[in-house]
Q: What sequence folds into this?
């Protein structure tokens, strides 16, 4: 440290190690990414320093950068740094040690959460997630913990999405954005792209159909995503366009998605895509083609969870209501799907069912 760099009484570091670098970051109250930008170095460099602790000694030119960073910190940050360094040296270790978590148990709970989501057991899913989200203290140096934390946030977003809580402070969108920040900091491009895709789904479900269709279209060619996710994006372009009333155009996206799902050996999505195609044909006024497509979807049920059962049967009812000869059957199916939606707390689907019934009754 150059003489006269800091005012009297300010903290100094005779030699910077990963420990002191971490303490300075905490004193400045910055994230790993924010601290890296403050210093003008890569985030992974900062993470490497911190994971190495006192055994990592930055190069002399980096030592000078850290000297300068401390010198230009405000008085409050320098005081915090001095206290942290004193505590660390007296204890012989850095303060705020990374807590130890049972990552294997956490991973098992996330697998159980996925199973709960499939059965729409939202209360148990929330219990499994909350026990870790409430316990974990986000720490950029703990990559495994942060990865599981990000996965937990995403699954919590799926719970809220399935329950119809799309926007607001306790919504799917809010939690997805938290997860997005975690995976961005972890530099996990595929996870980031998957969350971007989920956020477009929220836009579509919220009625922002034009922007959702355009964003889906861009993600169909996004190499960060797997071929399966890119094909799902293609299907959802058609879904958004069909909701927008552009039914003929929608089929030009849905039919290729059906072929791609078949090539990828994804029978559940292949069946769902036929359901979407049936609705597009219905919207275009071709009830014969709609009937054929919905029959394929009904005959090839694969993932017959309560949520997918409601989605498929609601689509079937919507088609039956388009013909006076089958309208009574359609209303009976809608009543059944409404009861299932209420039982499992599928509020978005219940609102959709109510909308279909109101439009039918107002004709």
A:
């Amino acid at each position: 440290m150059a003489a006269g760099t800091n005012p009297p009484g300010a903290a100094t570091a005779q030699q910077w190690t990963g420990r002191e670098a971490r303490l300075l970051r905490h004193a400045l109250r910055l994230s790993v990414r924010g601290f890296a930008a403050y210093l003008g170095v890569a985030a992974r460099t900062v993470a490497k320093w911190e994971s190495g602790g006192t055994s990592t000694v930055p190069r002399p030119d980096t030592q000078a950068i850290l000297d300068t960073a401390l010198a230009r910190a405000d008085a409050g940050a320098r005081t915090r740094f001095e206290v942290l360094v004193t505590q660390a040296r007296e204890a012989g270790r850095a303060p705020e040690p990374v807590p130890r978590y049972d990552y294997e148990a956490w991973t098992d709970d996330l697998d159980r959460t996925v199973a709960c989501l499939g059965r729409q057991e939202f209360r148990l899913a929330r219990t499994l997630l909350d026990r870790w989200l409430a316990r974990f203290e986000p720490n950029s140096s703990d990559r495994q913990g942060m990865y599981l934390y990000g996965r937990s946030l995403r699954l919590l977003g799926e719970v809220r999405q399935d329950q119809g809580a799309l926007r607001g402070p306790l919504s799917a969108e809010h939690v997805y954005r938290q997860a997005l920040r975690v995976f961005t900091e972890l530099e996990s491009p595929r996870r980031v792209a998957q969350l971007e895709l989920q956020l477009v789904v929220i836009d579509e479900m919220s009625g922002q159909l034009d922007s959702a269709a355009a964003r889906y279209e861009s993600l169909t060619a996004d190499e960060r995503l797997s071929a399966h996710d890119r094909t799902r994006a293609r299907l959802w372009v058609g879904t958004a366009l069909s909701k927008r009333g552009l039914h003929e155009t929608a089929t030009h996206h849905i039919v290729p998605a059906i072929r791609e799902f078949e090539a990828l050996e994804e029978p559940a999505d292949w069946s769902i895509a036929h359901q979407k195609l049936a609705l597009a044909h219905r919207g275009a006024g071709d009830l014969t083609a709609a009937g054929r497509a919905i029959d394929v979807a009904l005959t090839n049920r694969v993932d017959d969870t309560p949520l997918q059962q409601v989605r498929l049967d609601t689509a079937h009812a919507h088609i039956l209501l388009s013909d006076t000869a089958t309208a009574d059957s359609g209303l009976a199916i809608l009543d059944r799907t409404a009861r299932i939606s209420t039982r499992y707390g599928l509020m978005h689907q219940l609102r959709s069912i109510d909308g279909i019934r109101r439009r039918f009754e107002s004709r």
Observations:
- The two ends are 81 Å apart (CA to CA).
- Residues 1-11 have pLDDT under 50 and may be disordered.
